[in-house]
Amino acid sequence: MNLALLLHIYQPPIQESKAVKEIAQSCYIPLIKSIKNNQHIKLTLNMPLSLVYQLHVNGFEKLISDIKDLYESDRLELTSCAAYHPILTKIPPTLAEKEIILNEYGLGYYFGKNKGFEGEEAILVKNINGFFPPEMAVNQDLLKLLDGMGYQWVVLDETAIPGYTRASDYYPVYNFPDLNIKAVCRHKGMSDFLSFKRDTNVEDLAKVILELSQNGQSLVLGLDGEFFGHHFDEGMFLFEAFVRKILSLGINLTTVSELVEKSEEKAISAISESTWGTSAERMIEGDIYTLWDVPGSKIHTLLWEILAKVAQEADFGAHKDPAKNLYDYVTFPVWDLEELNRLPDVSLKNKIYQEVLLLQCLSSDQFWWSSNVSVNGKVMFSPLFVQRSLELYRLYATVTQNQDLLNFINIKAQEIAALL
Fold it and tell me: Which fold has domain 2-276?
């Protein structure tokens, strides 16, 4: 049996440096160290540009270097994502594509090569085969966009498979009649079982995995990497015990891409719009965006109105005054404000800054932290994160000198403030 472990690690662009440092020390550093120290571990890692850059500015160059070494030695597979973690199914395709392009450019900058085959300056990054959609939010339109961009597979939740129920048979890899991209399905029950576990006993995990292995299918587990050491203090002990147990049972730990190559595929015609936060029961009720668009939430309604207005204005501006790809600067980190300030062309610098700010505004965290939904006993509600998101919107409207947009944001922000 092949088991692919896909870990998603991420911090939003509005995160405090103190929090990034604490999570790096409690989770990211020990996790990467554990992988380095065990030659039998191979896994897939999703790490959006938003986090990589924050590790860079907070002095974690050694951690970035260690990840690059594991990647170059094929011990660790990297996936692409969206740079600032928006819900791609709820923003215009033009902005979704910009988020994806910037993210892959960022991965190449930090983990790839900065020289072409003939020694010229260029960003080269190998084997970015897969795509991790933020919050595993997918629909058929996103599938087509990713297929057109050349990705070989996209990971999604079981709820995206039409007819999914808790009792349905799990299948890891699906293909489509009119698309080249494949759908890699994470096992929802087992992934959630692991991510919400709060003890270090691995026998219960092993028992379920052995039962699943009886049908001969491979298994994909997808969860937040922060579980190991941040969400759960003893998470790293659990990670290492889990790995030892899996290997002792003769189960092969592999990357998602290797699992796709070795797995038989099942054909489906399309997927259902879904996220990894929903369930079969919620899907029936139409509750797809369980933590990001809560039915009846006035705060969510107002935030989505702001995002829609900002996206509409930006999309209109792009069509009215089309510019060349602002990321086509060979090896220049356009997301790095310190580097950006060194550009002599003020007009170009402002255009880049505006676009990066726009993409940062789209982060899903503004909705997560205003959902007021309980997750594993913790209520997801942070007025501070909401206020920071609103400040980012205001900054974008200010630097674009769009007074009408700024007025709109301020009116909505006042309504939100009354609800916090």
Answer: 7-stranded beta/alpha barrel (3.20.110)
